[in-house]
């Protein structure tokens, strides 16, 4: 198969709107998961089943699993490991990596080959399929699936504090960017960098945004950087051209640009670690064999909720 | 008190030789600790009590403790948290942060105010005392002491594999450098960067060095970068001028320079996360109040050994 150039990726920057018309607040994680499994939920999941935890995905040949666990342990902000296949090849049961939770509690009725709205497939590090609805044909008995925390999980907490993310308010996918911030290497995973998600906020609100997201250590926690200066520090060339997801908007839906509002009212970008980081590692490291990921923004929704993953004081 | 400019630091680049003349292999961690407490062991500790785990130190006013624990959790490679004061103000007992170990197992006979060969004291983020022998007068009932893993802990494993670090072979302190690699922020600890330690190795040995140090996740684990290109990537201006410790040498004791040896035999710098990183954060963040650290390279030596901190497979 010829590799697909993700940067030209047909669907990457195309708006994806929810096809689910019922009130989001009625949904459970399991309902979204079953709808995705049935091929009925095919949209991005920001705002889906509020308070239910969402997760990123990476599926690796088993020989890379130990190095990947170590990569997560060394880089818990972009790669907070929630769970993995209970055994090599298993797509229907999880082993938990979250203290105090079992795999069954995280997600009981489960099919990792179907339960994300859309998937990506890599062969030898090259993207060969983008935005496919399932990976039943691609999953092998040698694959291990990993679930990584997702920042969509704290968007409800932000919204409840009157700080709804602009992309959620407009039913858009979050903008995500490659950066020049290195991951701490682990075995085969070396010389690779963070992917970040971005939500714009008024400068006066940044400290509250930090406080609200800080307890969500299993889903990236507080931002890694913020402000217009951060764009350069992270090595992002053009804020209007994300590498994954959709272009950023302000709360009124207009494109995000520098200089809107003055002083503490100025809208500034705020960046979080992003669970697309493992897919970026695959593209850099190009390990032999087949790797599967979710389509960025098209997450699995789990049975656990906000309060289940916030560490007790 | 007038702050001391660390960059002019009288003792920072001065060679420090061990005053302990007995064979290092006879020492236990407790012996080194008691000798430091008595003011008899005042040298850097690379090579001291081989196989015993060494630790970095930071002592904070209790109001910063929660943010600092989170900083460690988010940045476990430069800041692997081993233990802290059992209660606020306690300098004689530890609470363990290492799975399967108690505070008493980590170090039983303990006086955090005396058991490092040398200390540093900061007031409002400015260094006010350097290389003092104890901090009995500086420690208050509101202080919490934190022990952070140290890369000296895996130097014996490297030596046993025929890869003795050049600085250990020559009885020198390791060279340590500030970098431009950002830490993931946590509360008050923001906009601060990694400090790294460096050991030079032949290019052909780097993969073995990575493998040998990889299991030591509680003491920085495998390197974060390597090769002459890494010097620029990390933002290090001049490899011959470390910010802490002593100037780097090759195995023959000559200054480390680029271009010694050809191809796979070329000597290249290898960089690890370093537990001086929290002191760098204090210098950047300048929190109000008194902070205490160890003098870089002058570590506490604990009762636990190599095998106690390597996670079971």
From TrEMBL, chains A, B:
Keyword Lyase (UniProt): yes
GO biological process, one term: glutamate metabolic process
GO MF annotation terms: D-glutamate cyclase activity
Alphabetical UniProt keywords: Lyase
Keyword Lyase among record annotations: yes
Stored InterPro entries: D-Glu_cyclase, Putative_hydro-lyase
Organism domain of life: Eukaryota
Family that this chain belongs to: Belongs to the D-glutamate cyclase family.
Protein name listed in UniProt: DUF1445 domain protein
Originating species: Capronia epimyces CBS 606.96
